[in-house]
Amino acid sequence: MAISVEGVAATQDYIPDPLGFCKAQRSRISPEKAGCAIEYSADRPICPIIEGGCHMPTFIVTGSYSATAARGMIDNPSNREKAARAIFEVAGGKMHSFYVTTGETDWMAITEFDDGADLIPALLVVGASGAVSNVKTVRAYTGAEFKAAQEKAGKIASTYRSPAK
User: Fold this and answer.
1) H/E segment holding residue 24
2) Is 147 helix (H, G, I), strand (E, B) or coil?
């Protein structure tokens, strides 16, 4: 399957850069001007190709509802997925999915943001509302991103000296 964005094809030698590619999509400047195409190598991160383009970093956010929030949802049921999507999008991210969960947390959102720092304002707003607590965020990596990290680790492993030796 051939993939190209604004005329720049992703090939075995060139894979769009995650941040530059996304900048080009948002600003509609050419990928070349945004610095999107990078020469592929094991010591540079791979930007997985998803539906014809690169994705931003994925963050999994979990949290618990407060007793007050639970009372409010019983008295006035609302679409919490819609509310979560709105706050993540206004902060500049994208929410892929939202789940009500059982166990240690009450909900989970799978999101994408250019950077973890872009996610923090949304979490501050939600936390300050008093409706949620125990909010945790983890960065998720694709199989391709993890493989690139393994390859880089293999290249730099010889430079590390363990203090135990």
Assistant:
1) helix 18-27
2) helix
